Amino acid sequence: MNGVSVHPSFDYVEPNNDIAMLTLSSPIDLTKPCARPLCFDPKFQLTPGQLCKTAGWDLDFGVSTPYILKSATVAIYLGTDCNSYAPSTVHLTSPTKQICTLKPEDGIDICIVGGGGPLFCQHDETKQWSLVGVMAYSHTCLETRMANVFTNSLVYASWIEHEMQRDL
């Protein structure tokens, strides 16, 4: 890795503006089965209740190999709607800059750990997957019906584009 650029207004205590850009020292080999590109469309429109996906390391407490890369389908809740669906489980520090997710009622709950994991949604028309968020914080793995909070990357599109143009 060549560098890290943390958002200039990042506040670790709250946490607000919880987003950073990494500059890699070499390209990622996209021919490998473990790496896939993901679009970033700043114009993507999120809707409450929309089903999207997240991916990360699943901590399975009954397995000797503790970390398994998995994905999960989650429902999107924007702003203060999160508190209606998951009362007392999450505190959005910046409701306009954060996305709250919950597993759908009929969905499978997996324990995704590790901040920085992607939240991605599929365009209705193009069927392309687009990055919409980056995991800021999540519930503890043994709790049920708990919300996860993602930084809404769409809100930071101009900062992301600026950082991509910089020479880190």
UniProtKB/TrEMBL annotation:
Q: Which residues form a coiled coil?
A: none
Q: Name one GO molecular function term.
A: serine-type endopeptidase activity
- What PROSITE patterns does its record include? TRYPSIN_DOM
What keywords sit in the KW lines?
Disulfide bond
Q: Which GO terms describe its biological process?
A: proteolysis
Specify the Peptidase S1 domain's residue ranges: 1-165
InterPro entries for this protein: Peptidase_S1_PA (IPR009003), Peptidase_S1_PA_chymotrypsin (IPR043504), Ser/Thr_Proteases_Immune/Dev (IPR051487), Trypsin_dom (IPR001254)
- SUPFAM superfamilies listed in its UniProt record: Trypsin-like serine proteases
Pfam families linked to this entry:
Trypsin (PF00089)
| Similarity comment text for this entry | Belongs to the peptidase S1 family. CLIP subfamily.
> What is the official name of this protein in its record?
Peptidase S1 domain-containing protein
